[in-house]
Amino acid sequence: MKPPRREFLHLAAFAAALAAVSSIACAQTYPSRFVRLVVPFPPGGQMDIVGRIIGQWLSERLGQQFIVDNRPGAGGNIGTEAVVSAPMDGHTLLLASATNAINATLYDNLKFKFIRDTTPVASINRVPLILEVHPSFAARTVPDLIAYATANPGKVNLATPPKGTAPYMAAALLKMMAGIDVVLVPYRGSGPMVTDLLGGQVQAAFDGLSSSIEHIRAGKLRGLGVASAARLAELPDVPAIGENVVGFEASGWSGIVAPRNTPIAIVEKLHSEINAGLADPKVKARLADVGVTVLALSTADFGKLIADETEKWEKVVKFTGLKPE
Question: Which residue has the higher pLDDT, 29 or 15?
Answer without folding.
Answer: 29
